[in-house]
Amino acid sequence: MKTSDQIIEEWLVINCQAGDRKAFELLVKRWNPKMLARVYYTTKDASASKDIVQDAWITIIKKIKTLKDPAAFQGWSLRIATHMAINWIRSNQVNRKREDIRKTTQAEFAEHSLRPDEGTLDALKRAIDELPDEQKTVIQLFYQENLSINTISGLLGIPAGTTKSRLFRGREYLKVMLENKMYQDEKE
Q: Is the CATH code 1.10.1040.10 the one for domain 4-111?
């Protein structure tokens, strides 16, 4: 024998299926706390639980006409909410893993980033001073003044291709000089 609560619930579901807004509001009022408790039990996140339950109600209202047995509403609606909570957990785990990888990568990069020692900086300054004036000027404007190739070309009155080739040759010279310095440091 059905209880009066079960009869009322079935009546609300039938009316909701017929498009009665008031019946839907009463159904939400009746089931929202239970659904929220179930979702919170699954997610352990109060804020996410509220969002998930709200999304579950949207799905329920869209699909309620497909529910054949109004007496099955309780299990049906809780299953929808629970599946949404599980999907939230899965996506959250993927996001957490991505965030953990990002943080680990940043920490490792910070640990292993190139921090030149004083000897390397001095060697770099000496190498820049040894560059031909044309290359030294382009290197200084590009790296110390942070000017673009086009701006440097305009300042020096030379084509952008010439600026690029001077920058390239200057870098290559500095690279060789620094590699030699590191090789000598290793020998010592």
A: no
Q: Of all residues in the chain, what percent are helix, strand and coil, respectively (each to 5)?
A: 85, 0, 15
Handedness of CA 81, 84, 89, 90 (dihedral sign): positive
The class level of CATH for 118-187 reads mainly alpha
What does the alpha-carbon distance between residue 79 and residue 58 come to, in Å, rounded to a whole number? 14
CA distance 127 to 98: 42
Q: What integer is the mean pLDDT of 35-53?
A: 91
- pTM beyond cutoff 0.85: no
The number of angstroms, rounded, from the C-alpha of 70 to the middle of its chain's C-alpha atoms is 42
Q: What does the alpha-carbon distance between residue 44 and residue 8 come to, in Å, rounded to a whole number?
A: 31
